[in-house]
Design a protein that fits this description.
alpha/beta, nine-stranded mixed β-sheet, six-stranded mixed β-sheet, UDP-N-acetylmuramoyl-L-alanine:D-glutamate ligase, single chain
């Protein structure tokens, strides 16, 4: 029976939400923050007895969470998730509090319920022990907000701490040398996913006809055990690839779930034809005759190959964990992937009259590199609008933009720049070789007017690609809601 403190915490959260909505605000985190103050164990109580999946890592959390949610719903499940992407303790708690009504209704109707919760990598160590997930996905580790997280080894240790507080089946990216290390001491409950090594030879988004091995990324180019530089036989992007340490023998773990693709035969901006494969429980890509399902991925971008296979893998593992291998079969989960839609700000294409915009969140060097590569290969790219802020949620240090290879990217003809640090971004673009006459730059206070201009300058049928970092994306969404009548991101 729930305690008085629990009910008081829920009531306090509801009152807080009502007040925020009256003020026209999103109410995605503050209700949970208030509830935790009243009952510090409320999240543990909300998750007790529930089947939960958690998703953590640097990049791809929100998209993977969105994909997993859509797959479960397509397979007949009622899903509670933090749709807004609020992934700290307060945001996760808020989502679970306001998902109670839907879960109770589903329970009463005899429907199956799943909780799919995106969790911040820095906070995972404190959250996992309360959620107690049955399946935990770790996407990747890239340098991001060093002023908050510190070096990647520290972030990895925080995730490891969380994994040791629960008994979840652990789904790890085999191509990430840092993430894959998390299997040590957890071998019996670890499953790997990744790209096939053969496919990774098609590893350059901007120039897909070029194959071979890309230069090493600075994020994780050395073995953490013996400090020897990794040798790669194939790479996808960043430090992800088929790595081997020639000194100590550490090597990429062969994944059970993997993707095969030929990027050279796929358009870079209209989705991809992929083969998703499952070698089966206890097997890897090296075993013969895996299950295979051809799908057309509706969300473009090579990074979404990883998000897609991790999402399908998580749903299949959950089916195995709870004994629902029929509704959550590999074939059915993979097929459901064709019906997923882009999450808020993640390759999200929006029609505004006869014009289009596409929002691509960029928050660290690898994310920005992937976005610029994608735009460079997009056939409908006529303009690019880049926004850079340096608030606490973004990281105060913006020097990371100089770690991105702007020089090899082809920019659209029209370039727009805004944000609190628009001068820094404009300087970086100028140094990459873009003529000053092509750039229109304005401060954050004039962001809305510049958006109007950029959309007005667009040709019908073409797309304006918008690359904001986190807080500038939230500001952008608010502008789109007010001026172009889009729905708020929490809806």
């Amino acid at each position: 029976m729930a305690s008085i403190r629990f009910h008081l915490a829920v009531f306090s959260a509801k009152c807080t939400k009502l007040g925020l909505r009256i003020l026209g605000r999103g109410a995605t985190t503050l209700p949970g923050k208030v509830a935790v103050k009243v009952d510090p164990k409320i999240l543990e109580k909300l998750c007790s007895g529930r089947n939960c999946v958690t998703i953590t890592g640097t990049n791809g959390k929100t998209t993977t969470t969105h994909m997993i949610t859509d797959i479960f719903r397509n397979c007949g499940y009622t899903v509670v998730t933090n749709v807004s992407g609020a992934n700290l303790l307060s945001g996760v708690t808020t989502s679970m509090i306001f998902g109670r009504k839907e879960m109770k209704k589903a329970d009463k109707a005899g429907k199956k319920v799943i909780c799919v919760l995106e969790t911040d990598e820095g906070a995972y160590g404190k959250i996992a022990c309360q959620i107690k997930p049955k399946v935990s996905v770790v996407t990747n580790l890239f340098r991001d907000q060093l002023d908050r997280f510190g070096e990647l080894a520290h972030t990895r240790d925080l995730i490891a701490k969380g994994l040791d507080t629960c008994e979840a089946d652990i789904l790890l990216n085999s191509d990430d040398s840092l993430v894959s290390e998390l299997y040590k001491g957890r071998e019996q409950r670890t499953v790997f996913y990744g790209l096939s090594e053969e496919s990774m030879h098609y590893n350059n988004v901007t120039y897909p006809d070029k194959s071979g091995v890309l230069p090493a990324s600075s994020d994780a180019e050395y073995c953490t055990g013996c400090k020897t530089k990794y040798t790669y036989t194939a790479r996808s992007f960043g430090h992800l690839g088929a790595f081997t340490c020639e000194k100590c023998g550490k090597t990429r773990m062969a994944p059970r779930f993997f993707v095969k693709y030929d990027l050279a035969k796929n358009p870079s901006d209209e989705g991809y034809e992929l083969s998703l494969l499952d070698a089966g429980s206890g097997k890897t890509e090296k075993d013969p005759d895996p299950k295979e399902r051809r799908v057309k991925l509706p969300i473009p971008g090579m990074h979404n190959f990883y998000n897609s296979i991790s999402a399908v893998s998580a749903c299949v593992l959950m089916g195995e964990k709870i004994g629902d291998t029929k509704d959550l079969s590999f074939d059915r989960c993979a097929a459901a992937l064709e019906h997923v839609e882009a999450a808020f700000g993640r390759m999200e294409k929006i029609s505004i009259g006869d014009k289009k915009i596409c929002v691509l969140l960029v928050k660290n060097p690898v994310g920005l590199d992937r976005a610029l590569s994608f735009v460079a290969g997009a056939s409908d790219a006529e303009g690019i609008y880049m926004l850079l802020n340096s608030n606490i949620a973004d990281g105060k240090d913006v020097s990371w933009i100089w770690d991105v290879d702007f020089e090899s990217k082809e920019f659209p003809e029209k370039v727009y720049v805004s944000g609190d640090r628009y001068g820094d971004m404009m300087l970086r673009i100028l140094y990459s070789g873009v003529d000053r006459e092509r750039i229109v730059a304005k401060p954050m206070e004039e962001c809305a007017e510049l958006l109007d201009q950029a959309i007005s300058d667009s040709t019908p049928g073409k797309c304006l690609y918008i690359l904001p970092n986190y807080t500038s994306m939230l500001a952008l969404r608010s502008i789109l809601v007010k001026r172009y009548h889009l729905k708020d991101f929490w809806k």
